[in-house]
Amino acid sequence: MEYGERLARFRQAHLNPFDKAPEQHERPEVPPAPERRPDPSPGDPEGSERPMDLGLAEDHFSRPVGLFLASDVRQLRQAIEECKRVILELPEHSERQKDAVVRLIHLRLKLQELQDPSEDEPNIRVILEHRFYKEKSKSVKQTCDKCSTIIWGLIQTWYTCTGCYYRCHSKCLPLVTKPCVRSKVSHQAEYELNICPESGLDSQDYRCAECRAPVSLPRGGPRRGVTAAGAQVSRCSMRYLALMVSRPVLKLREINPLLFNYVEELVEIRKLRQDILLMKPYFITCKEAMEARLLLQLQDRQHFVENDEMYSLQDLIDIEAGRLSCSLTEIHTLFAKHIKLDCERCQAKGFVCELCKEGDVLFPFDSHTSVCTDCSAVFHRDCYYDNSTTCPRCARLSLRKQSLFQDTSTEAEP
Description:
Helix content is 39%, strand content 7%. It is of the alpha+beta class.
């Protein structure tokens, strides 16, 4: 049986039965008309088909999506341009236009595959203190931080820095010019506190210093009321701020000592931090506290158990939002409960006011007490202020030193 006869029978078997007339029971075989192909354009190779003719014609025997006649970059680019032209000519939202868009996507993927072949790449690359690791994810929702284009994980090799999370194509690795931000944080952990020390955008031709993409102001000029902390910054600066946000590098007393006179929350936080520092000696000498790891309650803010002066940017953000005061008060209550109620060993380290010799056991972090600056003895605040010229413990220690000195001098005489 010849090809034309087989094709006619195939088409007869797939006819819509509702298109037949009521009295028609059988359709005579009609030899198929020879298929006419469009004349090749002058720019196409002789005797070959245009790339856009494949997959767009409504024909059961057209080439399936994914098969391309173009085998090199030049032919694929020609096919992409032809596909764009056809998409613009076809009616909007039509099925043929949708098919053309799908064809355009496949052509671009094929072109990207030829430009960036997935050859075997090393798993680790060290560039400008970046430690790049090859990613195995096939997600396509990533963007290259160097060229600002989409990373097609299915067909492209890409890397991520474990220090600053900088991600880019493997082909963009040699073009990276910015050192790893984490190394900068390790070597220079401080903020720029001067106002506007940087040069203007005109010094870098109004382009991004990293990817060289044009940088322009928002429509209508700068927005009113937008502070420097809320304005957009570069990806490099954003990652630097993200790594620095929890580092205690701000000494508020030196930056602006008047803040504690006007911000009540800072005064409250400073008092809680001072109390925690006074509780620390109890915990490091208490076996039960060490087993319970009470000091790990502040593991996210370890600088709180080291000093009461340094603050991180996250501390200031939480103070302004009211979160830090609440959490620190809960931890302060937990620590005080262990020392004053739960642990007998810590209770035995309390003080009795030697000025009035009355009242409960006192601790240096109690709100109604005062501590001698010379011997660290604890008294009632009112008692200490009324007898501020004398401290019984200091006087007793002074007499003991004098007696020891006299005994030593007596033994030294012949």
